[in-house]
Every structure is written in structure tokens, then in C-alpha cells.
Amino acid sequence: MVCRNHSLKMIYISTGQVFDGKKREPYTEYDTPNPLNHYSRAKYEGEKIVERLVTDYYIFRAGWMIGGGAKDKKFVAKLIDLMKINPEVRVVHDKQGSPTFTFDFAAKILDVIATGRTGLYHLVNKGVATRYEIALEIKKILGLDCKIIPVTSAFFPLPADRPDSEAMENLKLKMFGMDTMPKWQQSMKIYLESNFK
User: Model pTM?
Assistant: First the structure.
């Protein structure tokens, strides 16, 4: 209400998890969400509330977030810890997503805002990966010795359903000639060499 009453633009951060993962190709901003769990339903409801109540808004959907450096508590840092102390690490290979580096994500948000073109955007690094493929890339970049073993998601049962694919495409950025997001492997290398070597 504050944004609407004072003609302010609002920014809302959402997720690729709003999709059900049944599409073979990466999702675009024009695909219809179908969330599978409470978290993703809440995120999608937030999108709809923003669209309904705010005149000028930016909704930015991120993929699998990677970043945080020494304070990183997400997948990459946890995986590195496991890989450093275990001769073998099992990693899921049957779900895919779009790695999204915090630095690239934040920089592109500023680029989009500077254009004044409000609306919904996907902001992910180029390329699609499984957790297994990400683990192999981490092993290569950091020169770790452990063996990476691919397993299905059934090996790590979770309390909430997760989509088989959270892969996204920055279609609107492409339409505006603005899709300069780096490949995820390139940003992964910069992130790991800056924080974990």
C-alpha cells in the first residue's frame, strides 16, 4: 500500500521453484507457474499480490542461489565441506536448475531498474545444471580428490515435493538485448577462487 500510495516502485524476489518442473525446456516469464510445495506456493502468492496491489513493480525470479563467501550456508559450501573430508560424496543427478550467483543477480537487478521497464523477469546465469554437474565443476576448480557418485533424489528424501526442473531462461532480458549474465561455470570459478582457495 505504501508503494501504491506514494507512487513508489516495488522489488519482489521470487524463485524458479514456482514451476512444477514438467517442462523439458527452461521456463520463461510467459510460462504458467504451478507450485508443488508450501514455500513455492507462498512465493507465487507473493507475486500475485504484488501484481494486484502495486502499479509499478519488479518481480525477479532467481534460480539456485550461490554466494555468501565465508558465511555461505547453502549447497555449494556444504558440498565443499563434505568433499574435503570424505573420499566419496553422493550427489543428486535427476533434478536440474539454473545456478544464480548473488553478485551477477544483484548487478543485473540494477541494470533492469535503470531501464525503467517494470514487470516480471528471470535473472539466472546462462546454462542448466544438475547438482551432480555442479559438484563435478567444484571438484575440478578446487582440485579436490574425492569421488563424486551420482544418485537419484530418492536417496535423499525431503519432506516437501521439489520440481524435477527449475531451469529458467532470461527471455525478457534477451528481448531487450540485455542478457549479459555469464555462464554459471564462469561465475562459479570466480566465486570459488575468491572464497575457497
Answer: 0.93
